[in-house]
């Protein structure tokens, strides 16, 4: 079983950071998001990731791309990662009205959070 550890080094970002994801986040993106989720590095907006980290297998059938993991992926606590993915802390789904209007609702929600967090930080003394 392979475990990985990341040790933060200065300089660290002080700006508010939000992550926007959906079921298309797969493999390396999910590994990064698993760290974000586990260590509460920022809010995650959108939908649960694919749950297919580790080696990726892909085949095409009848014009469709099918992807799956080639190994058992576990969370640090031993729970199953494959098939479950990284859940958003702020679930936001695109709507038909948003798509028609050219609005990326998960991105807009994340941007609103960043703006609010910047305002909150500038209003409070250091």
TrEMBL record:
Taxonomy, superkingdom: Bacteria
One Pfam family from the record: Peptidase_S41
Molecular function via GO: serine-type peptidase activity
Residues in Tail specific protease domain copies: 13-90
Gene3D superfamilies: 2-enoyl-CoA Hydratase, Chain A, domain 1 (3.90.226.10)
An annotated GO BP: proteolysis
Stored SUPFAM superfamilies: ClpP/crotonase
Xref: InterPro entries: ClpP/crotonase-like_dom_sf, Tail-specific_protease
Name of the molecule in the record: S41 family peptidase
Organism, as annotated: Nannocystis pusilla
The organism's taxonomic lineage, starting at the top: Bacteria, Pseudomonadati, Myxococcota, Polyangia, Nannocystales
